[in-house]
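Hallway conversation turned thread

IA: we were arguing at lunch whether anyone had actually written out Pseudouridine synthase end to end. Turns out nobody had. So, for the record, here is the sequence (337 residues) and right after it the structure tokens. Reply here if something looks off.
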Amino acid sequence: MATIQFREVTGEEDGMRLDRWFKEHYPGLSFGQLQKLMRTGQVRVDGKRVKTNARLQKAQQVRIPPLATDEKSESNAPKRAMPRVDDRDEDFLKSILLYEDKDIFVFNKPAGLAVQAGSGLTRHVDGMLESLTDKYGQKPRLVHRLDRDTSGVLVVARRRSIATALTKAFRERTTQKTYWALVRGVPKPKQARVSTYLAKYQAEDGDRMRVAKHGDNGAQHALTHYAVVDQVGQKMAWVTFKPVTGRTHQLRVHAAYMETPIIGDPKYFNVENWEFPGGIQKKLHLHARRIRIPHPNGGVLDVTAPLPPHMQQTWNLLGFDVTQYDPDIEEELGNED
């Protein structure tokens, strides 16, 4: 006969939502069933009623009623299809590895490789991470994103508790990100910040972002600091961007908003009758160059990614020196939303 059980929250589960905790431990229990158990007080944490979105803490005791633990619940669980892991995935990920320790991987994502699954996509970083699943069955976890056509630094947590800490750093903006880009024209002034609201809309080629007004439906504040590193007359410029917020396509939209769109941007390059310079590939020239993020176990993780081949080719053609020091952006990043 099934009985009431008590399960202790482990260190790896610290900060996990209660509904997700149940999904992992009792996959046969539907969300509707869980909500009913919560409403009737049959599921409790440390003897107290909580909501399904409550965050668990290490060493807390979760009361599990018989309904959640009977054989029927487990036998009716949908069978998870085992992901297909290509033997070459691990080798590929190791070939783009910039840094690793027992908690974190940092990769230099190539341009053109998606971070997550999407319509018509069969190859992406998230799927490839299955090949790095550890002996305890824990698959490394993404903690932030890069656009498909953007190259550069991508941080991945090796387990859940590390992912929670890193995600918090991104959310609380204690992370410093530096991007390099080649833009058409030269931003004026050469060092400043762009502060707008951005909102998503549906275009023929998929989702796009637009500059919006405060109060518009779905509008979110977006703040970017930038500085010009070098330029080719008034035709093109090497710009370093330091985003404070992390909105979708933020840097690409802000560059276009300044009337200096990023070279090779298929969505936001809006200059009519502009001839693509010879010797420069028609690819997005935006690269996540560097990241500085508090390490969950102390200190600061500071990783830099070399330019992708198409941008290195352009830099060589234009005579840009990658050893040049990034201009300091003196203005404080602040905590604006």
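OS: looked through it. The chain is about 20% helix and 30% strand.
IA: good, adding that to the notes. The domain at 87-171 is CATH 3.30.2350.10 (Pseudouridine synthase).
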